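User: Predict the structure for this protein chain, please.
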Amino acid sequence: MNAALTTTGAEVLARGVTKRFGVRGQPVTVLDDVDLRIAPGEFVSVIGPSGCGKSTLLRIIAGLLDADEGSVAINGEAVPQAIRHKAMGLVPQTPALLPWRSVRDNVLLPTQVNTAANAGRNLLDVDELLTSFGLGKDLRKYPRQLSGGMQQRVAIARAFVFDPPVLLMDEPFSALDEITRDQQRLGLLDFWQSNRRSVMFITHSVPEAILLSDRVVLMAARPGRIAEITEIDLPRPRDESVFLSPQFREYEIRIREGLRRVMKNAQD
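Assistant: Here is the predicted structure, written as structure tokens:
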């Protein structure tokens, strides 16, 4: 994957983010005073037990949910302005492709929404972008004709069509089998290392988080908050050989121990 992207990453800054949901008529705090900064061009994975609020935090940053307290800024802009400027690309857990549109037309869809914001933008060549994702021969195919891994590549390509400085990924490989998942995350790693964007990546996989990230953020639940942050000081560029590194194993042990602690505390 080596599409010719030009935009550099942008800073993502969340301060004091708190979110509550009503459960049986009572407010439940899902996120409590969360501070998180993603530097321009940094890859940050967020990991934690189910219910810790990691996907909720991503949706607040993406503008899909409003925080009850706190703020989020993308390169100093409030989220609504960042959305208007199409500064963020979102890859959901499932590809969410429209079955009646071809691969090419699914990737073009964001360019046909809010067309007033397109003026003067650097829209990537869709055919070239899809070719860089290994889909150059599949432009006219429909989602039903693609494997799960190929569908997810289409969703990632769609998120990049506006050349956004920020990419938000919510467990994009969770529905894939392990072999396909390995292929997809190595492809994403190669793509990101060639074209640095600021990435927030939600995952339940500790090895995946270590392989991809500059930092791994561990969240605790009840209420959701940041418990630990681990700096991943492994040399780049990386490939699958990193799994054999003793340092990789040390990071894996440290993060798994942190997960056990937060899960035990949630049960106490």
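The longest helix spans residues 246-267.
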